[in-house]
Amino acid sequence: MPTAPHPQNTDELYQALQENDRRPYGRTRTVTAEELVDAAEQFAEPRPLAHALLALQKAYNYGSEPRKSPVVFARVLTLFDEQPDVFDERLRHTLFWRFKWVANALLALPEIPLASLRQWLTEMRDRYEKADLGLQPYYGQAYHLAAHVGEDTDLAYELWAGRTRTRLSDCEACEICERARHHLAAGDDERALRTWEPVLAGKESCQEEPARSVSYALLPLLRTGGADRARELHLAGYRACRRNPSMSGEVGRHLEFCALTGNEARGLELLAENRNLFDEVESPLDLLSFLTGVEVLLQRVELLGHGDLPAAGYPGRTWTVAGLRAEVRGRADDLAARFDARNGTTTHTDRRRARLDRAPLLDALELTLRTRGLDDVTPAAAPASAPTPASAAVPESLPELITRARELEEQGHPDATACWARLRTLVASPGYAHPDDPAVGPLVRLRADLLDDEASRAGQKDEFDASAALYEEAAGRYDEAGAPDHAALARACALLATAQVIPQGADGADEADGTEGAETKAAALTATHAALVRLHEETPGLAPFQEARLLRLRTSALGLRLQTSRNEEDIAPVFAELDLLLAFATRHDIAGQVSTAHLLRASSYAIVGDLPAAATETDALLDRLKAHGPAWHLPRTLGLRGKIRIGLKDAQAAHADLAEAVRQAAEWPADTVDTAGLHGDLARACMHLGRPDEALRHLTRSAELELRHGSRFDAFCTYSNAAQLSLDLGRIEDCIALLDSLLAEPDVAAGELDDRLVAQLRLARARALHAGEDLKAATAEFAALAAESAGWDDDPGSHAMIAAETAVLLAESGEFGRAREAADQALAAHARDPRYEQLSNCLRELARLQAERQGAEGLADALALLADAGRIADEARTAGYESRGRDLDSALAYEHGRVNAYASEYETALTALDKALTLLGEPEPESHDRDHVGEWAECVRLTAVVEGLYLERPAPALARLDEAVSRLTALGHTEETEPLTSLAARLRDEG
């Protein structure tokens, strides 16, 4: 089926060739190129056919199809021999350049005899000599062949490297890579890295570089102590080659790098991302390199005892690490043997063995913000919990185990978790025999206990629907077991869980949002409290620990109501219930509930804004816990005091408390304390202390703990914050690598995660790509998000912002028509949900870009954009909107000045800039707004440029500048005077 309309004439053919040249390499581009060759053959002119054939060869070359490239080139060469006049200078240059492509293609095919390779090089040399072309490119190809075969390499290198470059030589970056690889093969890492430096530093580049060089330089950098630089280059270099069949060898070397630096889990993640390469790489030589890198990774994973892990491999079946390794080994061994048989050496088998025998170079190198081990990717029925040193040994005897679990549960002791987990496994196993022991009770009672524990864990994850249902089921089982007291407590827990379920409206939105929703939830909690009180009063025979729990549930209901309503009249009932709980727990010496009462009191003080009282309460509680316990309440109490101290603006003390809380939390089972929350609060404290890199580490740790706990939504939200922080810190590649890892998660790829959260992650990635100057990739991602968000009828404001950013990127790419369309989408969405500042910024930037690129030709369109920005400024003024950044009116006047200056309308520009200065107003002595000072100084500078340079009125321009410099100097803003004094000096010199 044709992929594009059939060109009807040569003009349409050339246009189609240009459009196809903008496509990424792959099947679509290749098939289209094949169709365009067919189309070109219908025309009488041979030149279009030459262009089409060369375009097809390019698609084959970079699409990793080496078998087809020489066939196409043979047709071009025949056409050149028969009709040389068809080939102008550009086509002739391309033709002779492509001799090298054919040499490389033949080299990559083991079925091509060595004699044929040498024959082709002879043909290349004869053709170059006949055309009076320098032979350095020929000797370059001769060196490639010698290095490939593994014979006479040094001589071939000298014959090539010692010759002067010509117009047909490979680019500087590619030749640097070949020279560096020669030194690397000789075992001279230092010399290789010195040779590579211009490419690794970004001074020399091409379509394949620096990605190719980076992949080879990673291990030498590790061996010479450059681990940090290797890490940076891995992140940037991998992104440039991933999923690209023509760079599969480079991908393989990145997998090898992961395997040799303790990043086996990341290696498996990258392997999954590149699964397409198993099926799409047509070059046997590239495939050999890729498969060897894959085997290095799989071999390492299997040696670490994880051979049963799933691995992404050849399509059509599922693979384990061990199974895929065996398959890859067989295929790669065969390829190496075929090349060696063709070449008459053992070079490829020896090189492959050297890679596989290489020992890890580092035990652990933190490559990404999301550092994970193989244990973290091990599939499990439930989220894995980290091992905890303080956990008590689980009794072996079944009756003892059941009794111990219940005793620990009564105390609220965290070791109960391990006991219940062991019992859950035993009860679920075939042939389970329940002990006939009156002290243990019937099996139905144990099943009720297990349901109760499961309900509690669901509640900890905020899965309140599931928690309530499980508690109700547990209550029914307790009734069957003749334990009405336990049944009552389970029903009480179900009541509170039900009250915390957020009802969904017909449109899927949370009905708890907004004032009306808060009132509804508060009313539900009031009813829940009343129901809990009734249940308490109507249930006789409760044990003290059960009654204390009911009192705690009553307190929690009122505390949640206060947290929801923030009403003053809801404060006193909370403290009254707390007094009841504390008095009862103290009277019966229930240490855990005494501590809980103090903790809830401190939290309640914090909710009502009395932070000093909250701090006093936590101080007293910590003293009590250190003296009387329970010890497992210490991390949570320290965490609360840390948060309170953040509120009291004592970030240093908060950091100390939270760090100690994290340390102590490690001594208890993972679900005893919200360790993820502690790391999140530590991140906040670090930001207050001006330690953003440390904050970033705590954010990513918090997110990974949330993932382990099964809270995927919260984890991805935290990761999103970490990505934004890394972007703010200028760690662009870290940001992109983190987001790539998250977006590759199976539930994200399958569309199971919240679509708006995924869109937020993609938006962050698009912004990071833009910051990293990958304009093409950023624009594509923004455009896709803009198309998707257009359907967000419940959130037009977000679509307005995304479409606005998309418009700016399209304009930066020079696609002003598409940029205008995106801006119109943003304006339509803005009409439904205003985003005054974002839209104004977008329209002004579009106008600037169009005027800057197109000058007078683009002025009308630029002014139309500014007119739209003017209407938005009017709307904002009418609505009483105050911008967070630049004032919309003064910014608009400044942009009018700049746009007209670009279009050489200098008088109009000067008038607009004078208006902008009037709107901005001069900086005042009491002003500490450096942004306003900087904006005013810049406006003065541009006004003087227009007036003094373009309108050639230096005297008023100098007067303007001198007055501004004097004013800024008097106010102490000397930094802002520098561009003004520089411009004044230039005007005086030219005058």
Question: How are the secondary structure elements laid out?
Answer:
Layout: H1 10-21, H2 27-40, H3 46-62, H4 69-82, H5 89-107, H6 114-130, H7 136-149, H8 153-161, H9 172-185, H10 189-200, H11 211-223, H12 227-241, H13 248-259, H14 264-273, H15 277-280, H16 284-303, E1 310-311, E2 319-320, H17 321-343, H18 347-357, H19 398-411, H20 416-428, H21 443-460, H22 464-480, H23 484-499, H24 514-538, H25 544-565, H26 571-587, H27 591-607, H28 611-628, H29 634-647, H30 651-665, H31 675-688, H32 692-708, H33 712-728, H34 732-743, H35 746-749, H36 755-771, H37 775-789, H38 796-812, H39 816-832, H40 836-854, H41 859-879, H42 888-902, H43 906-920, H44 930-950, H45 954-970, H46 978-990
Antiparallel strand pairs: 1-2
Helix pairs in contact: 1-2, 1-3, 2-3, 3-4, 3-5, 4-5, 5-6, 5-7, 6-7, 7-8, 9-10, 9-11, 10-11, 11-12, 11-13, 13-14, 13-16, 14-16, 16-17, 17-18, 19-20, 20-21, 21-22, 22-23, 23-24, 23-25, 24-25, 25-26, 25-27, 26-27, 27-28, 28-29, 29-30, 29-31, 30-31, 31-32, 32-33, 33-34, 33-36, 34-36, ...
Q: Roughly how much helix do the residues carry, as a percent range?
A: over 70%
The secondary structure category is mainly alpha
What are the segments in which pLDDT stays under 50 over at least 5 consecutive residues? Answer: 380-391, 505-509
Distance between the ends: 69 Å
Tell me the number of strands.
Answer: 2
Major beta sheet, strand line-up? 1-2
Brief sketch in words of this structure:
The chain is mainly alpha-helical and 991 residues long. The chain is built from 46 helices and 2 strands.
